[in-house]
Design brief:
The chain has about 425 residues and is α/β, with parallel strands linked by helices. The protein has three domains: about 1-25, no CATH class; about 30-185, NAD(P)-binding Rossmann-like Domain (Rossmann fold), CATH 3.40.50.720; about 200-425, Rossmann fold. It is built from 15 helices and 13 strands. The strands form two sheets. Strands 9-8-7-10-11-12-13 form a seven-stranded parallel sheet, sandwiched between helices. α4 (about 90-95) links the parallel β3 and β4. It starts with a helix and ends in an 8-residue tail after the last strand. Bound molecules: nicotinamide-adenine-dinucleotide. Nicotinamide-adenine-dinucleotide binds next to α7 and α13. The site of nicotinamide-adenine-dinucleotide (NAD) has 26 residues, from α7 and α13.
């Protein structure tokens, strides 16, 4: 399903009429996206300006080039780790204020800061903490033009190239106002093209929507893929797997033996496990049947939790689970779904540290409003609210979530674990 306002806003006559008559109709920007696999120089054709932290060499290495004075900016990056007191925050104003209008449509604003939890003085904690409010407000001010603003919050001295490549590129088109924590030290070896070559991957719920978009991305990055879904009568799982050159396994993930069956189909080991299958069974709590409660919790949470045990990934592997903004913020008529999705987010936050010694990362993606069959079923008024109540003023596409899942699955994402990354266009819903 596509967003009619984004389509109309592309037409000059429509924009002219809305502006000319002063109509209260939002004109969401067309977000710039890229297709296909990562290129060796992920920020090619991107012009940047930066402040502090010797970032120029890093950005040049990713293919970006310094912007000439007054040129439109693709990327503005600020290294904030040297800021120690609230008065130092003035340099944020000094750098960004004159550049806000220079950021081109679908441009990127990124700040790199310390995580407040590792600062040792109230002044530096307050200063590091101030960056989150700043970035979220920038996201709201810039969203109308499709510009995103994100904060990379560091614990230790992690490799900054991978998050700059992703959050600086069109692959993060629908991620804005987010704080992403990186933990670790030193450089990560990372080829960008075909980075999943030779990796055994499984994606559940892969027959359509976000799962299918992720399957397409995984195959284009070279993964050896198993696609899992309920075996529907329409044969879509087998058809899509055939088209992509992947294996198909028709399976209900709530089965006790689901993990073992997947492992067998994968030939005994798995490197990348993407727990994407999910369902909604919406009703207000007063009207919700026990069946609806149990089904939503069993598929969205129980099955995923069990598969962490029964489908163990190899050392150095990646696990991504699909949570939801509804799980973080709560949602009318979704007590069952929100409980399950918030349970997933907690599991990720608290279980990830125990996997770190084996080089395994565990992260959650929390999509906001994404244009799929799941959201097409929502009544029109609620659907419109879901789309427009976001800084970017529109719903995301399955590919936006697929790009985030793919990024977190790369060897280069080694320093990102225990995170709940919202792919929500800066939704006003929730924290
Ligand atoms: P979708 O309904 O289009 O696809 C989900 C897939 O999961 C389907 O193919 C379905 O057959 C499969 N599935 C369901 N139950 C299963 C089971 N027991 N065993 C195996 N497969 C099963 O949904 P989507 O919009 O692509 O969502 C994917 C994930 O993202 C879900 O976990 C969903 O909760 C989450 N999410 C989606 C949105 C959104 O706006 N679309 C927002 C937040 C979170």
């Amino acid at each position: 399903m596509s967003d009619y306002l984004v389509n109309l806003s592309r037409k000059g006559w429509f924009r002219g009429t809305v502006r000319g008559l002063g109509l209260p109709i939002p004109l969401p920007a067309t977000l710039k996206r890229v297709e296909g696999p990562w290129a060796e120089q992920p920020l090619e054709h991107c012009s940047f300006e930066s402040w502090g932290g010797n970032l120029d060499v890093l950005l040049n290495g990713l293919g970006a080039s310094p912007a000439s004075h007054d040129e439109a900016l693709g990327l503005a990056v600020f290294a904030a780790r040297a800021l120690k007191t609230p008065m130092d925050l003035a340099s944020l104003h000094e750098f960004f204020s004159p550049r806000m209008k220079r950021l081109e449509s679908s441009g990127r604003l990124i700040i790199i800061g310390h995580s407040p939890k590792r600062c040792d003085h109230p002044a530096s904690q307050a200063t590091a903490g101030a960056l989150a409010g700043f970035i979220r407000s920038c996201a709201k001010e810039l969203g109308k033009r499709g510009v995103t603003a994100n904060l990379i919050s560091c614990v230790g001295n992690p490799d900054l190239a991978p998050p700059l490549a992703f959050f600086g590129s069109p692959r993060s088109a629908f991620i804005t106002g987010q704080v992403i924590e990186l933990e670790g030290d030193g450089l990560v070896t990372h080829a960008w093209s075909k980075a999943l070559q030779g990796q055994r991957a499984v994606i559940t719920g892969a027959a359509r929507g976000i799962g299918l978009a992720t399957a397409e991305r995984f195959v284009s990055e070279g993964a050896d893929l198993l696609m899992v879904d309920l075996g529907g009568d329409d044969g879509s799982l087998e058809r899509e797997a055939d088209r992509l050159g992947a294996k198909a396994l028709a399976l209900d993930i709530t089965s006790e033996t689901a993990g073992a069956q997947m492992l067998e189909a994968l030939g005994g080991s798995v490197d990348l496990a993407i727990h994407n299958a999910g369902i909604t069974r919406d009703r207000t709590l007063a009207k919700m049947s026990a069946d609806n409660w149990n089904q939503a919790v069993a598929v969205n949470l129980g099955a995923v939790e069990r598969m962490l045990e029964t489908l163990p990934v190899q050392d150095g592997g990646r696990i991504v689970v699909l949570s939801s903004v509804a799980g973080l913020a709560g949602n009318f008529g979704q007590t069952n779904y929100a409980a399950a999705k918030s349970g997933l987010a907690a599991m990720v936050r608290y279980h990830a540290p125990s996997l770190r010694p084996r080089g395994i990362t565990l992260n959650a993606i929390a999509p906001g409003f994404i244009e799929t069959r799941l959201t097409a079923a929502i009544p029109f008024a609620t659907r419109e609210g879901g789309r427009r109540l976001a800084a970017l003023g529109q719903g995301g596409l399955p590919i936006d979530v697929a790009e985030a899942i793919t990024f977190l699955s790369l060897p280069a994402a080694k320093h990102i674990s225990g995170q709940v990354l919202r792919v929500c266009g800066g939704s006003y819903l929730g924290a």
